[in-house]
Amino acid sequence: GGNLAQARLAPRELALALRGIVDALAFTHERGVVHRDVKPENVLLDRGGRAFLTDFGLALGPGEGAARPRAVAGTPLAMSPEQARGERVGPASDLFSLGATMYQRLTGRWPFRGRSVTDVLHALLEEEPVPPRDLAPEVPRALQAIVLRCLEKDPGRRFGSAAELGRALDRWLQRSEERRVGKECRSRWS
What we know:
By secondary structure, the protein is mostly helical. Helices cover 49% and strands 3% of the residues. The chain is built from seven helices and two strands, in the order αββαααααα. Strand 1 and strand 2 form a beta hairpin. Helix 1 runs antiparallel to helix 7 and helix 3 packs across helix 6. The relative contact order is 0.14.
């Protein structure tokens, strides 16, 4: 089925596909593993649209996230501010990267950009992302709020865990399904 970078998915389809990645991150985080390279190319899709998180080559095992100093490793366009600074990384760093991945797939561009790696890292550390709806008005407001919370610079302002992010996505998916069914019923009865 290819990877997420090659897929063209509507916002709801993207959220459904990434819901499995959130569960994969919850599983790894519970075991003390931090992926450190969540990005569209590392999310494989099967023909049924199920997503699989791959490439744990940069992952840190239990207790390794606190080691210092740490060389910056990962994909600058998708890394968290703490990862870019070479600081301790934990589950919140992966949630930031997943937020950057969602942003990129929803808008067609990365939340922090530049002409060079240095420019990207400066934007990541100093600038706020353009709200996704400013670039892609079809992005639902509630999904935008989820993405922007993942992209908070302060790890303490992001979702507290992958499980918490999963619950937020589940609520949004449930409401969007209820609206879709309601519209379908109204159009059928009109």
